[in-house]
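Would you be willing to look carefully at the protein I have copied below?

:::
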Amino acid sequence: MFYIASKSLLMRSYCFFLVWALGTCFFVKAQSTAPYSVPTEQGEYITVVQQHTFKYFWDFAHPASGMIPERNATPNVCTSGGTGFGVMAIVTGVYRKWITRAAAVERLLKMTRFLEKADRFHGAWSHWLDGNTGKVVPFSQHDNGGDLVETAYLVNGLLVARAYFDGPGKAEVELRQRITRLWETVEWDWYVHNDKLHWHWSPQYEWKMNHPIGGYNECLITYILAMGSPTHPISKKVYEDTWKKHEAWHYLNGKDFAGYKLPIGFDWGGPLFFAHYSYLSLDPRQMQDEAVNYWQLNTIHTLINRAHCLERAPRSYRYSEQNWGLTASDNHQFYGAHQPTEDNGTITPSAALSSFPYTPYYSFQALMYLYRIQGNRLFGPMGFYDSYNAAENWYSNQYLAIDQGPIVVMIENYRSGLLWKLGENISELQMGLRKMGINKPQYKTGFYQYTPEVKSGLVHLMKHPDAGQYILDFYLAEAGSPKIYLSDQNGKITVLSEGKKLPSGPQQLPFMAGWGDYTATIENGTTIAKIKIGLR
């Protein structure tokens, strides 16, 4: 995975470049679109899936409002959270040159003008809106008012668009101003009731839903925005008392599942969207608090989910190394929060594909199986349909915005880090993280991104689809001139780098080597770090 950095250049474009790898900075010209890369087989498959999935947010957007329908079967019922995912998909579409910058800005202006007039409840939007009128479409009997979590997903997407469309032209200036007004008028603090941050409020039913946002789940981004709001912030005490203490039974964990120790969250990790929704614009490698490193959490969560499919689930479900991934989606009985503790054989493509940053090789295996083996029934004009169940011979004919969006965005974060780097430049997000005590970790010298698969003891790597080379990610706690080398199973050593001065911090080393299993070693002064890798 590429770790990239960016900065605003004359308020018009971003200069994307890779961090120092072996003392050389791999620069890409200052631009807001992806640089050309020589096509690879892996890259072509990934692009086909990513681009077709993007079409749901561009071609199927509501014609009157630009909002994103909840699902293709209900084109006038639009989702606030799924629209936020769609905004980030639109940013990705511009970056990948699937649409023009001007067309994207025009679409987002239509959307923000609609949102200004849509029903709001102390600044929060409802879960569902009528795409023509902006009126509430009730999500359930008592859920006909503000939904703070869905609002957070929407606002997060808008803030990413504000960061990306930074040009001096009239349309982009107007877009940024409208987004700022929408964001600053969300009354996060008003949703504090009985000293707890609540998910819902309705003018008809008030606090009847009574759902404090507690325990670890998909809602972390809600607290980051609520803490970082420049106009209506909540206190750290509310964050601590609600998120960490209200449902403490699924905050701290520390138990072992399939050989992996899970620091926080539900037993067996819960559905995989927990590792996606709050991290679409936030790089979890840069997030650590007193309880958890969020990159390690999400990687372990993904590996637990996969291990359940391979080793624990009934064989009748027909899971395999290529066919895995449980998250909330449609199923043959209607809908379910699929996870290791609630598994009926339903595979949701979004689960493995949105996990590309954490498990790229395993996610690519899933992509190829779903596309080449199941694709005649599962892949349509707007990407993979929502889910399928081989044991029941059931295939969905639906697209769901909240499952499609993370595929586009998280694949892009794997490929270029685009949305993560934009998030680093959103001051309010970074303020929220700091106020919560989530800071950038100081890693030890070693292979900080990798968690070996328990069964094989290996970290499996694939060639990066855009670089056509393997990328070895590592971290230097101190500047130095490390020796980095591979040892094969016969003891043959291949030196990848030696004697080149590197600064402290995250590093990347592009390299080529033959298919097989190796031990990768870093020697930096008296510090030695090793890890077993499988090149595939």
